[in-house]
Write a structure and sequence with these properties.
heterodimer; A: about 1200 residues; alpha+beta; six-stranded antiparallel sheet; five-stranded antiparallel sheet; 43 strands; B: about 130 residues; alpha/beta; about 20% strand; globular
C-alpha cells in the first residue's frame, strides 16, 4: 500500500471521514493532506493541528505496518506535544475514553485524567520533557485513573515514552484499562480475609495435614483457634505436630494413632473422640474428623472440636434420668408417661400398685405397653362422662391447645369417698408425649375444710370482738383489720390496702418501735404496748395492746396486733388522778392541819399545816408514835387519842398550847376514827379566841369609855312617862343621883336659855317626823359656866306609829368646841400672817397641783386667784427647769432628802421670767406627806447684780486671753526678725564675697525694718488705747499727699500712681493722728496687695466731708479678700496674704481707732477683682466747740 | 550619706534666705526646695507625687504663717496617700517657745523634731542624725 493510501485509510478510520481523493490528490501527500484538512475543517470547526500539519505527522506513517500495529494494540495510545496538547488519539483510546479523536486532539491531555492529577499535570509535563525517559505508571499501589467523557473514572496503567528521534517533544502514552484486574485482585483479598474470619469463628480447629512417609503428621494449615483449645499456637503446630500428641491422654493415645493410621491407609474419613490434658491440667474431650482431599490423597483436611461440654452434659443427663426415675418411684402420686395416642410408655411404682389394687374407671389396670385411653373406655361404665372429659382434656393437651389440664373427681374406694386430682402435662420436647398424674387429695380437702371452718369462726370472733386486731406484713403494710379496728380508726376495707403502719402510728408510739420490732422478729410477743393510733380524721385513739409475730413456714412474715381502745379509760384515769391530786393539794395546803395515825398511834402522814403547828418537819415525824412527839405528850393528848382509837369514838375539843415564852395558841381538834386508825383535823383558832376575848373586854370598856368620853344615855318611856338617866347624865348635868328625879323638865332647865326653845322644838319635831335627832346646844350651869352638848335621840314606835320610847345619848363636847374655837382664831391669825408676809407662800399636793397660794404669790406671778384651781407647778416654772424641779418635788413627797433651799427662774402668767429663791418643806398631815409648802422670794435684783458680775468676769477673762495672744504674737513678731538678724550675722561671718555680704546686709536691714514696723504698730495701738482724743481740723488733701509721698519713698512699695477725689462741704474735725494712721494703713494695703503680674494696678481714694460726717473710700483692683475673711482681717494679728509682711495689727488698730472716734469701717471685696474699704467718721466739730 | 531632698516652708523670706544658706553650707542635702506658704508647699508635694519624683526626706516647717499655719499644713499633709508620706520626717522650725505648740506638733506622727530659730549648723547636724539611719 502506498503512503497516500495509508493516509486515506487513516483519515477514514480515525476521523470517520470519507474523503474522495482524486488521482491528482493521490500524487502527493501534500495534496491529500490539504484536501483532508479542508474536509476536516468543514466537519470540525476546530481542527487538530497535528493532523493538518503534514510535516509533523509524517512520522506516523513512515512504517507501513504501523497502522496495523496501532490498531491491534490492546492499549490506547495518546501522543502529546511538549505543551501537553494531544496530537494523536488512537482507536483504542476512543473506545477506552469515549471521546472521538476529533473531539480531543488539540486539547490538553489532562482532560483524560482524574481531577486529582489533572490539576497539576502541566507541571508534570514540563518535568517530563526536561528529563524524558520511558517509564511505567499506575503500578505498585500508585493507582492512576483515567477519566471517560461521561466523567466516570477507571484504573489505568500507563507506559510513557518519547518518540525517537525526538520530534518536537512528542510524547506517547500507552494506556491500559486495568479495571477488571483490579476487581479480581480485590475479590481474592476479600475471600482470603473471609476464610480467616470464618475459621477463626469456628468452634473447632480447622486444619490441613499430610501424612509423611515416615508415618508422621505434618500440618499445613491450622486455624488460630488452636491457641485457645489446645494452648498451642498454630505456628508451633505447623513446625512440629508432636506438640499436640504429647497432650493426648495416655489412655487414649494408642487408639488415636491407630485410628489415624487406619483412616490414612484406607483413604476413609476419620472421626475419633479422645481426651487431652490441657495446660491447666484439665481433661478436655476432643473430637477429630478429617477426610482426604479429592485432588491429593496425601493431604487431609479436617476439624478438631472441643466436645468436653457436650460430653459432660451427656453424663449429667444420664444421672438426671436415673434420679428422675428414683424420684418418680418414691412419690405416692401415680405418674405415667403416655404417647400422644395414649400408649403407656412408662409408669412409676405407685401407678403400678394403684392400678393393681383399684383398677377402675379412670384408673384402669394399665401398665407399660397398654393404651391408657382404650383402657379408660373399657372401664368407663357409669362414669362415661368423666372419662370422656378426661379424654377430651388429654386431646387438648396433646394437640397443644393447652399445656396442662387439672381437675378433681371423687371415687368410692372400699366405701370411702376419695378425692383425686388428675393432672395432664405435655412433655415439651415436641414428641407429643404426655405425663399424667393422679393424686389422692382426700386428706388435704378435709384439712382445708376444717381449716376454713376454723378460720371462719376465728374471723367471726375477731369481727365481733371489741378488741382492735390487725395483721401487718413485715414491710409494715396493714393486711387485715377487724371491724372494731376499722371503726375506731375510721377506715373501710377498700382503704386498708393502701394503709401502712407508719400512717396510723403517732409520733409517741413510733418511739420504741425499732426495739419492739427487734423483739418481734426474734419471735417474742410484745405486751402492754401503750400508745396512740391516728385515725383517718387525724384524731388519736389511746390504745393498749399486745403484738404477736406471725410465722409462715418458719419465716417471719409480719405481726398481729391486739389492741384495746383505752381513750375513755385514760381520760377517766387522768381525771381521777387530777381530782386526787387536787384533793391532795387541798389537803396539803389547807390551813387546817391534818394528821393520819394508824391503830398504834403512829403518824402515817401529816400535811404542811400540821407540820407547821407542831413539828419541825414532816419527814422526821412520819413513822413515829405520836406520843413520842414531846409537844403533844406534854399536853396530855395521847390518852385522848388512845381513847378514841380504842373505842372508835369521835372527839372534838379546844386546847390552848402555851409556849415557854408565855405566848399561847389555841387549837381545835377533831378526831375521827376510821378503818386505818385516826384522822385528826386541827384548826388554829388563836385569832378567833382572841376576838372572843376582845369582845368581852370591849363590853367592859364601853362603860369605862362612856365615862371617859363624857357620854351619858337616857330613856323615856312614853307609856309611863318615866325617865332613866345614866350616871354620866347626872355628872354632865352636875346633879346628884337622888337629889332630883330624872325628868325632861330638869334637863330643859339647864339648857342655855338661848337654845332652850330650839332644843325642845327639834326634839318634838323629831318625834313627830320619826327622824333621828342630832343636835348641839349649850347648857348654862347655875354657876354661869357654859357647857356644850352633843345630843342624839332616837324614838321607837309601836305598830300604830305611836311613840313608845325615846333613847338618847348626850356627850359633853365643851372642851372640843372650845378647842375648835381656839383653832379658828389661830387660823385667822395665821392667815393674816401668811397674807401679809413679804414672801409668796404656796402649798401644793403630792402631784404638784396648787392647793393654796397667798396674795403675794398672785402678785409675784401675776395670776388671778381663780387661776389657782387649775395651777400646776409647770405653770410657774420656766420650761428648761420644769423637769428638774418636778423630779425634786416627786422625790420630796416620796420622803427623800432633797434640797430645800434653792434658786430657780419662775415664769409669770404674762410669760416674763423672774429669778426666785425658795424654801420648801413637806406638809405632813396625820403622818402622811400630802404635799409641800414653799416660801418664794423674788431675787431678780440680786440676780441682775450677779449676772453683771459674771459678764464682767467673762470680759476680764477674754481680755486676759487677748493679752496672752498679744504677748505671744508680739514676742513672735519681734523675735522672728531678731533671730533672722542673728542668723544673718552668722552668715556674714562665713560669707566670702562682697556680693554675698551686701546681700546679707540688705537682709539685716529688712529685718530691722520689720522690727521697727512692729514696734511702731504696737505704739500706735498703745497710743490709741491710752491717749486722749485730740480734736483738730483735718485737711485730707494735705494728709493724703503726705501718706502717698511716704509710700512713694518707701522702697518696699511698688507705687503705681493713685486717683484722689476730695469734696468737702464743711470743716472736718477729728483726731488727726488717729485718722492719719487709718488712712496710712488702708492706702499702704491698697499698694501692697497687688495682683501678681498685674498690668494696671490702680488705687482710687475718695473723701467726702460734710458737717455731720466724713466718708472715705479706698479702692484697689488687687488680689481681693474672700468673703469668709471679711471679719477676720480685723482681728488682732490676723494676716491674710503671703504678701503680708507686717504684724497683722494694721486693720485691727484701724478698727480700734474708729471705735474710739465713733466711726465705722467695712469693706466689699471679690477675690481676684479687688477690695474697697469704706470708712465713716463723725465730724466732731461740735465737740470741739 | 546625704539627705536627698529638704523642703523648707516659711513665710518669712529672710528666714528662708538664711536657712537655705545654712543648709547649703552644711551640705547635707542634694536638693533644697523653699516654699513661702503651706499652700504652695502642698502644691509642690502634689506635683512631686504626680511626676513620681522623690519626696523630700525632711520638711522644715514654720508654725506662724498667714492664711495657713504650720498645723493647717500638717492637717492637709497627713491626708496624702500614706505610702508617699510615711517616710517623710517633719521638723517644726519656729521662733515659738509655747509648750502647747510643742505638744500639738508631736501629735503628728511625721513630726520628729521641734527646732527653735535660728537654725544653726549644730541643729542641722543633730536633725540629720535623727533622720538618717546610722
Amino acid at each position: 500500500m502506498s503512503k497516500e493510501q495509508l493516509v486515506e485509510i487513516f483519515f477514514k478510520e480515525n476521523f470517520g471521514l470519507c474523503i474522495d481523493f482524486t488521482m491528482d490528490d493521490r500524487q502527493s501527500i501534500e495534496n491529500i493532506l490539504n484536501k483532508a484538512t479542508r474536509k476536516i475543517k468543514e466537519c470540525y470547526p476546530i481542527a487538530p493541528a497535528a493532523v493538518i500539519e503534514p510535516e509533523r505527522s509524517t512520522f506516523f506513517f513512515d512504517n507501513a505496518n504501523i497502522k496495523h500495529f496501532l490498531a491491534c494494540l490492546p492499549d490506547a495510545i495518546v501522543a502529546t506535544d511538549a505543551a501537553g496538547i494531544m496530537r494523536f488519539f488512537s482507536l483504542q483510546a476512543e473506545v477506552m475514553f469515549g471521546y472521538k479523536a476529533g473531539e480531543v486532539v488539540g486539547k490538553p491531555i489532562s482532560i483524560l485524567m482524574d481531577n486529582r492529577v489533572a490539576q497539576y499535570h502541566t507541571h508534570l509535563v514540563q518535568r517530563y520533557f526536561d528529563q524524558p525517559s520511558t517509564r511505567f505508571m499506575g503500578q505498585y499501589n500508585k493507582l492512576m485513573h483515567g477519566k471517560r467523557k461521561d466523567g466516570s473514572e477507571f484504573p489505568v496503567e500507563i507506559g510513557l515514552f518519547r518518540l525517537e528521534p525526538a520530534v518536537d517533544g512528542y510524547a506517547v502514552a500507552m494506556i491500559r484499562d486495568i479495571s477488571q484486574r483490579t476487581l479480581l485482585e480485590k475479590e481474592v483479598v476479600n475471600r482470603e480475609l473471609k476464610l480467616r474470619q470464618l475459621t477463626d469463628a469456628m468452634p473447632g480447629i480447622l486444619y490441613q495435614y499430610r501424612y509423611t512417609e515416615n508415618g508422621e503428621v505434618q500440618f499445613l494449615f491450622v486455624s488460630s483457634v488452636a491457641e485457645s483449645i489446645l494452648g498451642v499456637s498454630p505456628e508451633s503446630l505447623i513446625r512440629d505436630s508432636r506438640t499436640i500428641f504429647s497432650k493426648v491422654h495416655p489412655d487414649d493415645r494408642n487408639q488415636l494413632f491407630s485410628a489415624i493410621a487406619h483412616a490414612n491407609a484406607h483413604q476413609t474419613t476419620l472421626i475419633h473422640t479422645f481426651r487431652i490434658i490441657n495446660n491447666a491440667g484439665e481433661i478436655r474431650w476432643l473430637q477429630v474428623s478429617s477426610r482426604p482431599e479429592e485432588t491429593d490423597g496425601e493431604t487431609r483436611t479436617g476439624s478438631l472440636l472441643d466436645i468436653t461440654e457436650s460430653k459432660e452434659a451427656e453424663n449429667k443427663l444420664k444421672n438426671i434420668e436415673a434420679f428422675n426415675k428414683a424420684m418418680l418411684d418414691t412419690t405416692p402420686n401415680q405418674v405415667a408417661l403416655v404417647s400422644g395416642s395414649g400408649e403407656v410408655l412408662q409408669v412409676n411404682k405407685s401407678w403400678l400398685q394403684f392400678s393393681e389394687n383399684h383398677g377402675i374407671t379412670l384408673f384402669p389396670r394399665v401398665g407399660v405397653g397398654k393404651n391408657f385411653l382404650e383402657a379408660c373406655m373399657e372401664y368407663a361404665g357409669e362414669d362415661l362422662s368423666t372419662v370422656e372429659d378426661v379424654l377430651r382434656r388429654m386431646e387438648r393437651v396433646s394437640k397443644g391447645t393447652t399445656t396442662s389440664e387439672e381437675f378433681q373427681y371423687q371415687l368410692l374406694l372400699q366405701d370411702k369417698k376419695v378425692s383425686f386430682v388428675f393432672r395432664i402435662l405435655r412433655v415439651l420436647d415436641g414428641s407429643g408425649r404426655l405425663v399424667i398424674s393422679h393424686s389422692d387429695i382426700t386428706n388435704i380437702i378435709k384439712l382445708e375444710e376444717e381449716s376454713r371452718q376454723k378460720d371462719d369462726k376465728y374471723r367471726q370472733l375477731l369481727a365481733t370482738t371489741d378488741e382492735m386486731i390487725n395483721t401487718v406484713s413485715k414491710e409494715g403494710k396493714i393486711l387485715w383489720a377487724n371491724t372494731a379496728w376499722k371503726q375506731n380508726l375510721q377506715y373501710d376495707d377498700t382503704e386498708l390496702g393502701n394503709l401502712s403502719l407508719s400512717s396510723i402510728l403517732s409520733q409517741e408510739t413510733t418511739t420504741g418501735y425499732e426495739e419492739r420490732l427487734k423483739l418481734l422478729m426474734a419471735g417474742k410477743v410484745v405486751k402492754n404496748i401503750e400508745g396512740k393510733m391516728k385515725t383517718k380524721g387525724g384524731t388519736f385513739v389511746d390504745v393498749l395492746g399486745t403484738v404477736v409475730p406471725l410465722y409462715e413456714k418458719g419465716e417471719y412474715v409480719g405481726t398481729q396486733g391486739f389492741f384495746r381502745d383505752v381513750t375513755q379509760y385514760n381520760k377517766e384515769k387522768n381525771e381521777r388522778i387530777k381530782a386526787n391530786a387536787r384533793l391532795q393539794n387541798v389537803l396539803e395546803h389547807m390551813s387546817i392541819g391534818a394528821i393520819a395515825l394508824n391503830h398504834d398511834l403512829i403518824i402515817v402522814s401529816c400535811n404542811a399545816s400540821a407540820t407547821g403547828f407542831f413539828f419541825s418537819d414532816t419527814e422526821s415525824v412520819v413513822g413515829k408514835p405520836i406520843g413520842d412527839i414531846p409537844y403533844l405528850e406534854l399536853n396530855g393528848l395521847n390518852s385522848k387519842f388512845r381513847n378514841c382509837v380504842e373505842n372508835s369514838t369521835f372527839d372534838s375539843f379546844e386546847k390552848n398550847f402555851r409556849n415557854s415564852d408565855g405566848t399561847g395558841r389555841w387549837f381545835e381538834f377533831k378526831i375521827n376514827p376510821d378503818q386505818d386508825g385516826l384522822f385528826i383535823l386541827v384548826a388554829d383558832i388563836t385569832k378567833r379566841k382572841k376576838i372572843e376575848e376582845n369582845l368581852q373586854k370591849s363590853r367592859k370598856l364601853l362603860a369605862d369609855a362612856q365615862k371617859i368620853a363624857k357620854i351619858g344615855s337616857w330613856e323615856l318611856d312614853f307609856a309611863t312617862g318615866e325617865y332613866q338617866w345614866s350616871d354620866e347624865i347626872f355628872s354632865i348635868l352636875e346633879l346628884k343621883r337622888g337629889s332630883v328625879e330624872p325628868h325632861y323638865k330638869e334637863f330643859l332647865k339647864l339648857v342655855h336659855p338661848e337654845d332652850r326653845q330650839g332644843v325642845h322644838l327639834a326634839y318634838t319635831k323629831s318625834v313627830q317626823d320619826k327622824t333621828v335627832l342630832d343636835i348641839r346646844h349649850r347648857l348654862l350651869m347655875p354657876d354661869g359656866k357654859i357647857k356644850h352638848l352633843h345630843e342624839q335621840v332616837e324614838t321607837i314606835y309601836d305598830s300604830n306609829q305611836n311613840p313608845i320610847r325615846s333613847i338618847g345619848s348626850c356627850q359633853d363636847v365643851t372642851s372640843e368646841v372650845e378647842a375648835e374655837l381656839r383653832l379658828r382664831k389661830n387660823e385667822i391669825e395665821y392667815k393674816r400672817v401668811v397674807e401679809n408676809i413679804s414672801d409668796a407662800i404656796l402649798i401644793d399636793d403630792r402631784e404638784g397641783n396648787v392647793v393654796f397660794a397667798n396674795e403675794r404669790f398672785l402678785e409675784l406671778f401675776r395670776f388671778e386667784r381663780e387661776d389657782l384651781s387649775t395651777l400646776r407647778m409647770e405653770d410657774y416654772i420656766v420650761p428648761e427647769s420644769r423637769r428638774e424641779l418636778r423630779e425634786r418635788h416627786d422625790a420630796r413627797v416620796a420622803g427623800a432628802d432633797v434640797e430645800t433651799f434653792f434658786e430657780y427662774e419662775g415664769l409669770r402668767k404674762d410669760g416674763t421670767r423672774v429669778w426666785l429663791e425658795v424654801l420648801v418643806c413637806r406638809v405632813v398631815e396625820n403622818g402622811e406627806i400630802t404635799g409641800t409648802q414653799s416660801a418664794i422670794r423674788d431675787i431678780s435684783d440680786r440676780k441682775k447684780a450677779e449676772n453683771l458680775l459674771e459678764a464682767q468676769n467673762r470680759e476680764l477673762k477674754k481680755i486676759n486671753s487677748e493679752l496672752d495672744q498679744f504677748v505671744y504674737s508680739i514676742s513672735h513678731d519681734l523675735r522672728a526678725p531678731l533671730l533672722s538678724v542673728l542668723g544673718l550675722v552668722d552668715l556674714c561671718r562665713f560669707s566670702q564675697t562682697e556680693t554675698e555680704l551686701n546681700e546679707n546686709y540688705d537682709m539685716i536691714l529688712k529685718s530691722v525694718d520689720r522690727i521697727d514696723g512692729t514696734i511702731k504698730e504696737i505704739l500706735a495701738y498703745s497710743r490709741n488705747t491710752h491717749q486722749d482724743i485730740v480734736l483738730q481740723q483735718i485737711d485730707f488733701d494735705q494728709e493724703l499727699n503726705g501718706i502717698l509721698k511716704s509710700i512713694r519713698d518707701d522702697r518696699r512699695f511698688a507705687y503705681t500712681g493713685c486717683e484722689i477725689d476730695i469734696s468737702s462741704s464743711a470743716p472736718f474735725y477729728s483726731d488727726k493722728a488717729r485718722v492719719g494712721k487709718v488712712l496710712k494703713n488702708l492706702i499702704s494695703n491698697a499698694f501692697i496687695y497687688q495682683k501678681e503680674n498685674s498690668q494696671a494696678h490702680s488705687v482710687k481714694i475718695s473723701v467726702e466731708t460734710n458737717s455731720n460726717e466724713c466718708l472715705i473710700v479706698v479702692a484697689d483692683n488687687g488680689e481681693g479678700i474672700s468673703e469668709d475673711k471679711h471679719e477676720k482681717i480685723f482681728e488682732m494679728f490676723y494676716r491674710n496674704s503671703e504678701k503680708s509682711e507686717g504684724s497683722g495689727l494694721g486693720l485691727y488698730i484701724c478698727r480700734e481707732i474708729l471705735n474710739k472716734l465713733g466711726g465705722e469701717i467695712r469693706l466689699s471685696s471679690v477675690p481676684g477683682e479687688g477690695s474697697t474699704f469704706f470708712v465713716r467718721l463723725p465730724n466732731l466739730y461740735a465737740k470741739n466747740k | 550619706m546625704k539627705i536627698n531632698r529638704i523642703l523648707l516652708i516659711d513665710d518669712d523670706e529672710i528666714s528662708n534666705f538664711i536657712n537655705e544658706r545654712k543648709l547649703k553650707a552644711a551640705s547635707i542635702a542634694e536638693k533644697i526646695d523653699v516654699c513661702i506658704s503651706g499652700i504652695r508647699a502642698l502644691q509642690l508635694l502634689k506635683d512631686i507625687i504626680e511626676k513620681g519624683e522623690i519626696m523630700p526626706d525632711i520638711i522644715l516647717l514654720d508654725i506662724n504663717m498667714p492664711i495657713m499655719d504650720g498645723f493647717g499644713f500638717l492637717n492637709e499633709f497627713v491626708q496624702f496617700p500614706s505610702n508617699h508620706i510615711n517616710a517623710v520626717k517633719v521638723a517644726m522650725l519656729t521662733s515659738s517657745l509655747e509648750k502647747e505648740e510643742i505638744r500639738r506638733s508631736y501629735e503628728y506622727k511625721n513630726v520628729v523634731d521641734f527646732i527653735n530659730k535660728p537654725l544653726t549648723s549644730d541643729k542641722i547636724v543633730a536633725l540629720s542624725r535623727k533622720v538618717l539611719p546610722e
